Amino acid sequence: MVADQAALRRAADALAGAKGPVAVDTERASGYRYSQRAYLVQLRREGAGTWLVDPIALGGRLDPLVQALDGTEWVLHAASQDLPCLAELGLRPGVLFDTELAGRLAGFDRVALGTLVERLLGFRLEKGHGAADWSRRPLPADWLTYAALDVELLVQLRDVLETELERQGKLAWALEEFEAVRTAPLPRPRTDPWRRTSGIHRVRNQRQLALVRALWEARDAVARDRDIAPGRVLPDSALMEAAARNPANEAELLALPVFRGRSQRRMSGVWMNALRKAGALAKSELPEPAGQHDGPPPPNRWADKDPDAAARLAATRAALATIAEANTLPVENLLLPDLVRRTCWQPPADLSPESVATVLRDGGARSWQIDLTLEALTKALAATAPPPAPPSGPASPSGPAN
Question: Per CATH, is 193-285 categorized as 1.10.40.60?
């Protein structure tokens, strides 16, 4: 364990003096805390052993570690989940190898860490604490063992997967994917995140949507201030019931099942204030029934809205499925589904391979993806394109000839 600056310097010296890739993992407290910060960082390097770093005890100051790992190759499993919280600590890989993504590209149908380790290395990892509250202190010894095991075999797994990818001729693809993950911008906040409240799909009334929004925003503010997962402040089911019932006063609110508890009684003023503010909104201030989207509508509506686009999407999906099967790839790793939908909904005007390639590249497709899909995608888009309109010109004369 690394919980003070002296231990951090020892860890940094050991890791800097070792060789080869560094296995990295983090433990967060999702479901318990509002933040997605790392509550433990696990590191292992051949010749240095395993170090479990407590960034909370260290106040987030990991400068010696940042310097020791600068420019090294990191091995993570499902790296996109861990990189944001590592970046908060100033930790960023110089080179990345993602064992989960490698497993997908290699064609394995199950790519959980334990599954890949057992299948490719013959070891079974002890599991059981992945959903634990890692903000707890002190951390129990069996939790620390679990955390250490997550990096124990990562480098060996990396080596086996690299060999398999090279055998399949996919290593260059994987390296391009890893670099895209490594350099991806941090996730942006969602637009109207309150619309993801469980059960909101049953709400159609704009006033009721305003009540949901107000309660969600009040809950989010409380959760953020206390660093508690929002669902532990007030579950979605209670939020939805309060919005549906729209109680007129605190007595009516406290009569609802979840709000009868002691903690909710103390918070009743917060919830009633949110409900009253939403109830006083002018009609023009109410949220729209459907959120604003910057992309195409859901595909199940395409046939009604744009039959040509629906035909393009069906043809494109069929072509991509064939390519994915031939290359033993998940079709979603061949091209992002969102990029496929956007391209089919609004394809380039001339449908030339050059124009389609530009659309794919601007949408984030990597070179290997474009190389594999461009020809088939261009043909699918062209085959379902509507026929050109007849040229317009002067009307032909009518009536009897003079």
Answer: no
Domain ranges of the chain: 5-183, 193-285, 299-383
What pLDDT sits at residue 388? 61
- Residue 263: pLDDT band with limits 50, 70, 90: confident
Q: For the segment 61-113, what is each residue's pLDDT rounded down to a tens digit? A: 999 999 999 999 999 999 999 999 999 999 999 999 999 999 999 999 999 99
Would the CATH topology of 5-183 be identical to that of 193-285?
Answer: no
Residue 25 has pLDDT above 60, yes or no: yes
pTM of the predicted protein model: 0.90
Cβ partners under 8 Å of residue 269, min gap 6? 250
Q: Which fold has domain 299-383?
A: DNA polymerase; domain 1 (1.10.150)
Class of domain 5-183: alpha beta
